[in-house]
Amino acid sequence: MPALTGKHYFNYGGQGPLPNDSLAAMVACWQKLQQLGPFGRDVWPWLNLELSALRKALSQLCGVPPQRITLTENVSSGCVLPLWGLPFEAGDRLLISNAEHPGVVAACRELARRQGLAIDFFPVQQVRSDSELLEALNQGLQARTRLVVLSHLLWNTGVVMPIAAVAQQLQAKQNQPWLLVDAAQSVGSLELGDAAAQADIYAFTGHKWCCGPEGLGAVVLSERVLAEANPTLIGWRSLSNESEGSSSWHKDGRRFEVATS
After folding, report:
1. Is residue 235 in some structural domain?
2. How confident is the model at residue 242 (pLDDT cuts 50, 70, 90)?
3. Of all helices (H) and strands (E), which one includes residue 107?
């Protein structure tokens, strides 16, 4: 890792250093694209193989089928694109932990303003066990809570949240609130277990603990999000047939992919 030469390094989770292997792969990719021609006829079969291999690798990392993977640019887009496509109704409530990143909280506040939703918070920084966390969550839930927002690994304290247990608790509720998980600090640093598979929206990035480039991330979406949510930003990558304006959406996670990125 060139960034570590002659330095003391303490990874605070903002951005990981690139290993030489990552740098070499990025350069080789750009060289191949230019060799074939960025939008040339021969580039698409090669590019589709690369994308399929990436989806497969990410699906194995997260323990989900490849069709549940949506490629994004970062955690923010991974959270916001599916979140804003969910079918909320005025008066519904969002329940957010008190340790979430300001970017995700801001997205929820603006969504609430636009759609007439209410926001509640529940404490996670103060709890000392999984059982206390689940009890705090249960006390925060209300009859019209439709979404819970919780990080897998808290960005400000480093405490790991029991995502699979939270998901199971929500699934037992009559209205089954969706679970959005900010996985910025967990993917690449933890064994994920069932967390990604159990959450409805599990968003992460490549430029932190995965030691990849800025501008590449992904989000794992549950089958019910794929069935109930509509695209938020729309582009040719969202369409099952990109050359037809009347085309339907992809039926898998690609419906939330936008355009050139």
Report:
1. no
2. confident
3. helix 102-115
247 three-state secondary structure? coil
Does 176 fall in a domain? yes
Contacts of residue 14, defined as CB under 8 A and 6 or more positions apart, other chains included, come to 208
What φ, ψ does residue 215 adopt, rounded to 5°? Answer: 85, 10
d(CA 197, CA 194): 5
Task: Confirm whether 50 is domain-assigned.
Answer: no
Residue 224's pLDDT is what? Answer: 96
Strands of the sheet containing 93-97, edge to edge, are 69-72, 217-221, 201-205, 178-182, 145-151, 93-97, 118-122
**Is the whole model's pTM more than 0.85, yes or no?**
yes
Listed residue (212, 170, 161, 157) closest to 190, CA to CA: 161
Residue with tokens 């047939």: 241
Domain tally, the chain: 1
CA-to-CA distance for 166 and 135, rounded, in angstroms?
Answer: 10
The residue written with tokens 């021609």 in the block is 37
In the chain, where do the E strands start and end?
A: 69-72, 93-97, 118-122, 145-151, 178-182, 201-205, 217-221
Given a cut of 90, is residue 9 above it in pLDDT?
no
Domain extent at residue 139: 66-228
> For the residues 36-63, what does the mean pLDDT come to?
93
